[in-house]
Specification:
D-Maltodextrin-Binding Protein, domain 2, five-stranded mixed β-sheet, alpha/beta, single chain, 291 residues, 10 helices, Arc Repressor Mutant, subunit A
C-alpha cells in the first residue's frame, strides 16, 4: 500500500482534468490554485509520468493522464460508496438512465422492480433512445449505448461482450433441426444490424443472398413482437435473447452464437463531474445486469 499516491493528490488530479483548470479544481475542493498545482506535480513525480499539459489558458490530459484518469475516477467513486454504505445514511436521490429502447424495455425495466424494492430511497427515471448518435445531454446521469465504443468527448466503459443468436416462437423452434431451416421462414431484419444476417449465412456455410429479408423493423423490440407472433425468425443480441427465452416468449432453435461486432457501453463525458453516490449505486447495478 505504500506505493499508493496520496488521496488529496488524486482528488486534485481528477478535478483539474475534469474542469480543465487548477483554479476551478481548487474552488471545487476548497483549495488554492497553488495547492492543486503542487498536488499534481507531486503525483507526477511519484508516478514518473506527466499527467497534464499546462498552457496559459487551460490544462489537458497527456496520453498517460488519459489512461490513468478512468481508474482514479472509479477508485474515488468506490471509496465514496463504501464510506456511505458503512458509515453514512442511505443513499437517496433521483437517477436518470437513458438506454437504447430495446435494452430499456427488455433488460432494464424487467429487473427494475426488484432493484427498487431493495433501494426504495432511490427514484429512477428510465428514458429510451432509438439511435446511438443521440446527443449526450447534461440531464442524463447514466447513459448506456450499443456500438463499438467510439463516441468523441466520452469515456466508454464496455459492459461485457455480446453475441448474436437466432430466435423464433417456441412452437416454431421445435420444428427446426438445422440452422439452414431458419431460412425456410420469413427473416426479420433490424435496422442498424446490417451485418447480422450476412454473418449468419457465412457462419452456416451458405453463400450471400441478394434477396431482402421478409420484414425490416427499426428496433429489436419490434422484431421480438413479430417473432413471438410467429411472423418469422430474427437474430438478437444474446443479452436480450436470454431473457426472452427464460420467460418463454421466444426460443433459440439451434445452439449457435456469433460474436457481435457491437456491445453495450457505459458512457461518461470527459468533463463530467464526479457522480453522486446514488448514481454510483445504480451504475454498479447496471454493470451486474449487463455482465
Amino acid at each position: 500500500m505504500r506505493s499508493l499516491p496520496n488521496l488529496l493528490w488524486l482528488r486534485s488530479f481528477e478535478a483539474a482534468s475534469r474542469l480543465g483548470s487548477f483554479t476551478a479544481a481548487g474552488g471545487e475542493l476548497g483549495l488554492t490554485q497553488a495547492a492543486v498545482s503542487t498536488h499534481i506535480s507531486a503525483l507526477e513525480t511519484q508516478l514518473g509520468h506527466q499527467l497534464l499539459e499546462r498552457t496559459t489558458r487551460k490544462v489537458g490530459l497527456t496520453a498517460a493522464g488519459s489512461a490513468y484518469l478512468p481508474s482514479v475516477r472509479k477508485a474515488l467513486q468506490d471509496l465514496a460508496l463504501s464510506t456511505e454504505g458503512l458509515f453514512g445514511k442511505r443513499t437517496a436521490g433521483t437517477v436518470t438512465i437513458r438506454a437504447p429502447i430495446s435494452e430499456a424495455a427488455l433488460i432494464i425495466a424487467p429487473a427494475l422492480a426488484a432493484f427498487q424494492q431493495e433501494h426504495p430511497e432511490l427514484r429512477i427515471r428510465l428514458l429510451s433512445a432509438i439511435w446511438a448518435d443521440t446527443i449526450l445531454e447534461s440531464g442524463i446521469d447514466i447513459e448506456i449505448r450499443l456500438g463499438t465504443g467510439s463516441w468523441p468527448g466520452t469515456h466508454a466503459e464496455p459492459l461485457g461482450t455480446e453475441v448474436i443468436v437466432p430466435v423464433c416462437a417456441p412452437d416454431l423452434a421445435a420444428t427446426i433441426r438445422h440452422p439452414r431451416q431458419l431460412l425456410d421462414h420469413p427473416r426479420i431484419h433490424v435496422l442498424g444490424f446490417d451485418d447480422h444476417w450476412p454473418r449468419f449465412l457465412e457462419t452456416i456455410g451458405q453463400p450471400p443472398e441478394t434477396r431482402q429479408p421478409g420484414v425490416t423493423v427499426d428496433t429489436s423490440l419490434a422484431a421480438v413482437e413479430l417473432a413471438a407472433a410467429r411472423g418469422g425468425t430474427t437474430l438478437l443480441l444474446g443479452k436480450i435473447a436470454s431473457r426472452l427465452t427464460e420467460n418463454g416468449r421466444l426460443a433459440i432453435p439451434y445452439d449457435l452464437e456469433i460474436p457481435s461486432l457491437q456491445t453495450h457501453f457505459l458512457l461518461t463525458r470527459d468533463n463530467a463531474a464526479a457522480p453522486k453516490a446514488a448514481t454510483g449505486m445504480v451504475e454498479a447495478w447496471l454493470r451486474e445486469l449487463f455482465a
